[in-house]
Amino acid sequence: MTDYLAATMAMLGPAQNRYAQPSAWERLHADLGIQLPPDYRVIVDAYAPIKLNGHLYLSHPATESWNLVQWIGDTIHAWSEVPWDELDLDADEDPRRLFGLEELSFGTRNGLWPIACTDRGETIFLDAAADATRLVVNYGETWAEHRMSFTEWLYRYLIGEDMTGPNSSAFYPGPVKLQHLPMSAGEHHPEPWYGPDRGM
């Protein structure tokens, strides 16, 4: 059985842990009232704030810029403003019918929690109500469900599988491209670097 955390970190290269602070996660969990998955926390601590392969953004709870708590809160607010009952959605566009949700809520004990996003308009959610790890991804009017850990999802995303919907692959051959995010208003995007060769 694949250890997806180890396999993903092997693609990304050595952990940097620039902002790793257990107290930041304790504050996040206290503020949000939810425990985010351990493998997700390891990846975020190891690399975030980061942009992976030119598209996927991960924020961190210990930084002022790209702060994970603020981003989650802002994203929850934006999604909660959508008037779902007033929208004329087809069955394959309505996440309530697609995923068997009695109600659609964001940032609640049984709701969807945003944990990552891309510059292509994709949002990756953790389903807090699921018995096992379930990720739900939105891309425009498309929704996709993945019953797997965050690191399995990330691993499959990085090797080019369609992890945000049909024909959604964002695969780039060669090593994974990593880029720190600017930590102040006047800072330009730092130069990217690349993970180890992965024979792809």
Can you give me a brief rundown of this structure?
This protein has one domain (4-182, 189-194). Helices cover 28% and strands 18% of the residues.
Task: Label this structure with key terms.
6 helices, alpha+beta, Knr4/Smi1-like_sf, Knr4/Smi1-like domain-containing protein, 200 residues
Characterization of this structure:
With 200 residues, the chain is an alpha+beta fold. It has one domain (4-182, 189-194). Helices cover 28% and strands 18% of the residues. The chain has helices at residues 4-12, 22-32, 38-47, 68-80, 95-99, 150-158, and strands spanning 50-52, 56-58, 112-118, 122-127, 135-139, 142-146, 177-180, 193-194. It has an eight-stranded antiparallel beta sheet with strand order 6-5-4-3-2-1-7-8.
Give the arrangement of secondary structure elements.
Blueprint (H helix, E strand, L loop, with lengths): L3 H9 L9 H11 L5 H10 L2 E3 L3 E3 L9 H13 L14 H5 L12 E7 L3 E6 L7 E5 L2 E5 L3 H9 L18 E4 L12 E2 L6
Biggest pleated sheet: 8 strands, antiparallel
Oligomer: single chain
Global structural class: alpha+beta
How many separate helices? 6
- Distance from N terminus to C terminus (CA atoms, Å) equals 21 Å
